[in-house]
Design a protein that fits this description.
432 residues, six-stranded parallel sheet, Rossmann fold, alpha/beta, 18 helices
Amino acid sequence: MKVGIIGTGYVGLPTGVGLAELGNQVICIDREPRKIEALQAGKITLYEDGLEELFHKNVKEGRLHFTTSMKEGISDADLVIIAVGTPPHPVTKEADMKYIHAAATELAEYLTDYTVVATKSTVPVGTGDVVEGLIAKKNPNADFDVVSLPEFLREGFAVYDFFHPDRIVVGANTEKARNVIKELYKPFEGKTNMLFVKRRSSETIKYASNAFLAIKIHYINEMANFCEKTGADITEVAKGMGLDTRIGNRFLNPGPGYGGSCFPKDTMAMAYMARQNDVDMTLIKAAIDGNAKRKQQMAERILESVKSIENPKIAVLGLAFKDGTDDCRESPAMEIIGNLLEVNANITAYDPKAMVTSKLLIGDKIKYAENMYDALKDADVLAILTEWQEFKTLNLQKAASLMRHKNIVDCRNLLNADTAKNNGFKYQGIGR
């Protein structure tokens, strides 16, 4: 199958590489010449575990190509996937659809034979109808169907999730379109759940899923606060809760709040759509408000740990919003750092993968270390903000010898509290 993918970000590129690995001819399209030039030169433009190897393999075998030309990418395609960004509107916080609308309008001109156009970007309910109308208006003779094909790839695990999906959701209103998607995902037949639903239901499923997970994170953070006041241990409480199959053990890790490119954006968009449809979604509103306060609370904990120290140096481990990715969008770490910088904090940070993307966001407002021990030199407090497994291996005896004052604020509960205390640290975890 010939597939054109519009957008080469955290959704488009892993999807393109994955579909090429399944044997399809894939052309990835992007308007940014520098990004396409880099990809054509064999330089991958984002970090995902396992992505680079498959990228090079499929480029070498001639199944994966890159272009800035919409005509080249769309002409004769059996399937066109729209995977452009839908950032939140700066005022209303609704999903900004200008990139989706622009892509739909531009691609319409190059549709020839029957083509399925799939929206893989997270889009408001009813977007399929709008895309359908834009294409028909620009090219009244086009033979096409629009389907909703939401992505469920976890950043950091996108390659694994592509080849081991827990479900494939397809919003298609015609049998002809459903058959094209069935053929695309034939390698997964009998290996996962494939759910065919109405297009508007499919568009809702993505938002409903992300909003629910965000609420779950907010809930466990509130329970962590409760445990801190009552003497319970949130790790034990979460384990007991997770054994209930109705609840499950995932997304029950307390921390500095949710972040990334999906949960903040999608909860705000869901809340906006609810208001537009006169539906009061109190749980989602509480999660949004609580998550914003959570970052401020974590910054206050860090500052409280060094309140008696003049001009304290803060060592930060972790900049990405989660482990396994270099994405710093809406990262709790970045927001906490922003709160600390408001009081002119002296910060040195280290992250295994996200140093470059962090610099693009905050530049030289903080210092960057070459490794985690370099960040600890003469520090008065260590703040762990991202759950990289590398940080679990921190040698606390060595850390104690490097730091000026022995304070740890572990916002991810990565370190062993007893080991930290035995090495002379004043240790604060979450919910303990």
